[in-house]
Structure formats: structure tokens, C-alpha cells
Amino acid sequence: MELTAENTAIVVDSTADFPEAPERFPNWRVVPLYVRFGDESFRDYVDLAPAGFYERLRAAPEMPSTSQPTPGDFLAVYEELAGYKRILSLHIAGKLSGTLESARTAGRELGGDKVRAVDSESASAAIAMLGLAIQRRLEQGTTDEDVDALVERYRGGARLLFTLDTFEYLVRGGRVGRARGWAGELLHIRPILTIQDGEVVPVKRVRGNRKAFQEFASAFEAATVDRATVRVGIAHAEAPEKAEALRKMVRATRPAAEIEIVTTLGPVVGAHAGPGTVGLFWFDDATV
Predict the structure, then answer these.
(1) Does residue 246 contact residue 216 with C-beta atoms inside 8 Å?
(2) What is the pLDDT of residues 206-227, one digit of tens each?
(3) pTM surpassing 0.90?
(4) Which of 29, 200, 223, 238 lies 20 to 30 angstroms, CA to CA, from 279?
């Protein structure tokens, strides 16, 4: 079957940090996760925007908790997309959240093979960027096999580096992964982390933000060539000045690269990463 933007929908969960997706693309939908402060539960981006979330976070006596959408949440969106022949549902790494399994359960309840739930093995802008790579192919006409090949190449070739102001949020949220050994050593130290096979993995420890950004620049330059097929994403948690510094670094290092998304980490991802986090994502989509 030929897949096009007219017959194929893309569903992402809100951890893609791409809330404007349905406004840009009629065939996209976003399913929100939940963040809870005490007895109050909010849908990510729907009931609570990033600015309001970080304001609450600073004043909260206890850390917020998060939870995945229910299968019913996904099913409602899939049924809304009844006019599409295929739904590609792209999600945060299955090792980081139960979101993917909720999507798969909803797909089974819908029946048939209309829904294909995909583990991005990553988070935040990486999910959005995978969706954008698929969208480019849908607009030209593609197939399930071509999408499968893209997903595998993306998992192997997309890169993510991020740095935190504190490990507190990752540790309390249980998402620290193999970086746990660094969690007690953060005074004046900036950890550079990535996500590999769906798990947070330590890359390097440096002293201060300047050194961290030098490492970002070095890794980005070493892994890319200067061409328009290099797609870049930047995400931050209440750190617009850091995001702007990364944007300038990308422009200086790879002038031909396309910065396709600069976003603020939403309530759910921000609850685990914490204020001050900044991340750089890139993928060379050279086959398009």
C-alpha cells in the first residue's frame, strides 16, 4: 500500500514536546501524558503549559509524579482518525515509560493492522524529528517497508546529547539509568548524557556550562558534515539562553544544517529532567 499524507496519520505522545504539530499538519495528533502535583492531575500541555508547570515546580513542597496515557486515551484518538488507512504512532522509549504499551493495547483493541506503534527509543524532540522525517516521505508517497527502514536508520543514526543542572529529578523519577553512579557528584560538574537503546547513559563529565557546550560542539562537528540533510532539534527546560547558545553553535558549525525544532521541555519531560536542562538532537536524513 502506498502511504501518503492523505491516507496516513501520525500520532505522537506529548513527550515529543511538539504541541503545535496538529496545527502544522492536519494528519498529526498528540496524546497527552499526565503530571500530578499532590491530588491535582493535569494533562501535559493541555491543562498545564510549560511556563505554568515550572512555576508550580519551584513552589511545590513535593516532586510531581507522571503517568502514561491510558489505552482508552489512545483509542479515542485512533477512532477520531477513522478516515485514515494507516496510523503511525510514535512514542517515548518503552524503557522510560509505559506509553508505548498503552498505544499497542489500544491498537489491538481497534483491531486489524491499521495502527503501527513505534518505539523511538528516545524522547522529546527526537520523537518529533522522527515524525517529521516520516512526514517528508508521506508527502512524496512511501510504503510501510520504507518507513520501517527509516525507523531503523533513525534509531541507529540519530544522536542526542543533554546536560542537567541537577540529577535530583532523574533520580526521584527513577529514570537515571546507567548514569546513577554520577548522581552524587554534580557540584560544579556538568554531566553530558545521552539515551541509548531507550536508557539514559552517561557520556562525559565536565566542569561548568562552557565546557559542556564545547563538548556538544565537538561531538556535533565530529558526527556530521555540512549539508542541508542534517536536521537539528534543540530542547530546553526554562533555559532559553542555553537554547540560543546551541542554536548559534549549530549555525557556526554547520551553516547548511536545518534547525527544524526549538522547543521547551513540557511538564512530563521537565518533571524528570528538571529546570536548566538543555538537549541537542540531530539526524542526517540524507536519503530524502
Answers:
(1) yes
(2) 877 888 899 999 999 999 999 9
(3) yes
(4) 29
